[in-house]
Amino acid sequence: MGRVGLGLAVGCAAVSCAIAGVLVGRRMRNRRKWARVLELLSDFDEGCSTSAARLRQVVDAMAVEMHAGLASDGGSKLKMLLTFVHRLPDGNEKGTYYALDLGGTNFRVLRVQLGGRRSTVIRHQVERQPIPQHLMTSTSEELFDFIAMTLKQFVDREDDDINRELVRSRELGFTFSFPVKQTSVTSGTLIKWTKGFAIEDAVGKDVSQCLEEAMTKRGLDMRVAALVNDTVGTLAVGHYHDEDTVAAVIIGTGTNACYVERTDAIIKCQGLLTNSGGMVVNMEWGNFWSSHLPRTSYDVELDDESLNRSDQARF
Predict the structure, then answer these.
(1) Residue 174 forms beta bridges with which residues?
(2) Within 13 A of 52's CA, how many CA atoms are on the CB side?
(3) What residues form DSSP beta bridges with 189?
(4) Which residue blocks in 91-229 are alpha helix, DSSP H?
């Protein structure tokens, strides 16, 4: 028994040593990995360093581009697009409204009931729908048919307790979060795709018309009452709750901003008059670039692998 016990003890000791060796080895490897992680984070932090002085330089560079974009089309990295939105919600809006939000790999259809007098939203129903990958590079007809089909299914499920008199003839607010040359508050032509979309035949087309044609084919009695960018939609919501809201920023699949500008400052549209004396400008700042703005190897790699190189991969 003594020899057996000794053998067991020696065996256990050997196993313990082996386990300890494995654990020590793992810890050493984990430490080396962690050290590598810290090194990468340090390099990334250094590459993205933005001192207050550098931020001021970026602000000045953006201000220059903003003025240039307001002066002429194509004269700036910032498109500074007119939205033809010169009046924002004042909180007195009342009724049931529909909205469609297309701006990334998913789109949303919404039904919202407003009570007026700056009240909170009475009812809010939303349905999210992923866009099949193949439709992001197919044809405009296929994409908008899919959207119209989903919208019709949503409308057909309209609750019985909705007051039909408050439904604004099922007018639709269309949020289209891609660069558009706006021709009116209800229409605009697509300038280019971003965020993974690359449907060539849609460029230059009126996106509101594309949607309305698809809705008609699906037997949906609805018209586009407003075509806006998601930043403009965000600004409208902010202004509905607080009339001092004059700008909005989006940080998501892409990034953008809009704000209320004086019409006399929009030089490229001299003589432009609005009742309010102002107009919401869609900056399209996703492609803004300045030599003062840090750009890392990850930015370069992301840009190289993008379907739309040099678009919205810098800011």
Answers:
(1) 100, 227
(2) 0
(3) 181, 206
(4) 140-156, 207-217
Contact 168, 230 (CB under 8 A): no
Q: From the CA atom positions of the chain, what is the Rg in Å?
A: 27
Q: Which positions are catalytic?
A: 108, 177, 230
Cα–Cα distances (Å) from 289 to 36, 58, 231, 284, 315, in that order, read 31, 9, 20, 12, 6
Using CA atoms, how far apart are residues 113 and 243, in angstroms rounded to an integer?
Answer: 20
Q: Tell me the pLDDT of the chain (315 aa) as tens digits.
A: 445 443 444 344 343 444 444 444 566 677 788 888 888 888 878 777 788 898 899 999 999 999 999 999 888 989 999 999 999 988 888 888 899 999 877 889 998 888 877 667 778 889 999 999 999 999 999 999 999 999 999 988 875 555 554 444 578 999 998 888 888 999 999 999 888 889 999 999 999 999 999 999 999 888 999 999 889 999 998 998 888 999 999 988 778 999 999 999 999 987 777 878 899 999 999 888 888 877 788 788 888 887 767 665 455
Which of these, 60, 59, 71, lies nearest to 265 by C-alpha position?
71
Answer for the pair 140, 127: CB distance below 8 angstroms, yes or no. Answer: no
231 and 248 Cβ atoms separated by less than 8 Å: yes
- Cross-strand pairs, 107: 102, 129
Pairing between β-strand 255-262 and β-strand 278-282 as defined by DSSP bridges: antiparallel
User: How many Å apart are CA 126 and CA 108, to the nearest integer?
Assistant: 7
Ordered by where they begin, the domains of the chain are 54-80+284-315 (no CATH), 82-262 (3.30.420.40)
Whether the predicted model's global pTM rises above the 0.85 cut: no
Structure tokens at 212: 């309305």
- Cβ atoms within 10 Å of 267's Cβ, excluding its own: 12
